[in-house]
Amino acid sequence: MTRVFVSIGSNIDRENCIRGAVRELAAHYGPLTLSPVYESKALGFEGENFFNLVAGFDSVESIERIKKTLSRIESQFGRVRRDNRFSARALDLDLLLYGDTVRHDDRMKLPHPDIQRYAFVLRPLADIAPDLRHPETGSAYAEMWQRFDTGKQEMWKADFDPRA
Q1: pLDDT of res. 78
Q2: Which domain of life does this protein belong to (predicted)?
Q3: Where do the domains of the chain lie?
Q4: Strand pairing partners for 2?
């Protein structure tokens, strides 16, 4: 079994999409460890606020199989892939960590670079895996969050239960 962490984000019909994603992930992978949900302003474009959280689970599936499952769930909730990275989206599921795997190729990067780039990814990951260490830097996620410069990345805990 490999410990897997996935980021979940939405700013279109966000309550429905986040709850649906959590339901689908739990149905496919079993028990989930969920971070609190954070709300943040759209970054890089004008749009509705995002809800973001991180889910952790154990899996025997390959990285490629997990990526296909995440893509299927995104499509199920209306995800339309665009060239513009900064845009509104019904559902965004990103594979953050697959155990201690380090992989940098044309198809994916693990650990996901957004862990070190965005507060809305690092903070929820640090909430549920504070002592886990980044496979490349060796730093614990709680330590990384303490050092993180939130700058213009304003976010706050949302009053939202994704399991309800």
Answers
A1: 80
A2: Bacteria
A3: 2-150
A4: 59
